[in-house]
Amino acid sequence: MFLPVSAAAEDAEALRRALFAEINRVRAAIGRDALQESEPLTRVAQARAAELAAAGSLDSAGVPGEDLLGRVRRAGYLPGAIAEVVAQADAPAPEIVAYWRAHADSIWRDVSSERHRDLGIGVASLEGIPVFVLFLGATSSDSFAKRTEGLRDRDRVRRELLSAINGERRAHRLPPLRVDPKLEQAAQGHADDMLARSYYGHASPEGAMVLDRTRRAGYPSHAVGENIGKGQTSVLEVVEGWMESPEHRRDILHPFFRDTGFGLAIGGPPGGEQVLWVNVFGEPRESRR
Q1: Do the Cβ atoms of 90 and 129 come closer than 8 Å?
Q2: What is the pTM of this model?
Q3: Among the listed residues 267, 287, 275, 266, the one whose alpha carbon sits nearest the alpha carbon of residue 180
């Protein structure tokens, strides 16, 4: 992207800071959060700008996706989202950003994106005209937090799960399930244990199954069942997935189950965050008396 010369060249640091400030000023004006300066992204962006200047051309401006990810990861940035912008212009920062907004849709989309939280800017000179390389991104932890923000109110999520499960039962003329605190304890305990010890399955590393967990919680049962899920970020998504699976569907629509409990665990180490769902079902012993 070229603009006519309209301002004397400033030193690279001043150009970088002016552009950073103007991007955040315009983002604020359209209701976006300010981007944070990322030292790793700045290092990668500066190296990329120097690389283009040394090549004497912007012909190699496009970086393949895998190379782009590799560069930022090697710099110590764990990306959940990443984008590169390359532009050449000799103009004040407000004119550059205004030009992007009016005439460069792809650049403006990246610069104004809600998903981006961090920014690094590199500046070099090519034939006397500044070259700007912007690396915009969000860490995997930031992206994970954004995707799962709707799950942070656990009580609300449990209410929605109960409503969705009972909606499926109602559609098949089955009685609704009621939440049992002991089954809730067993379900939440299993979700927390899977997250804490980095496994996923009905069996714990010691081989404990759902019946062991419900007995330990003090639930007297004729029968119990358990559905688990991994990675879904909404109640709708996890319940739809369970209903599409014959085994999980059978638990949800089991005619003798009367009680249920839900577990939800969110978190993990950076780059390895997970969402884990557990739904435990029970037929209380007194139901057959």
Answers
A1: yes
A2: 0.75
A3: 287
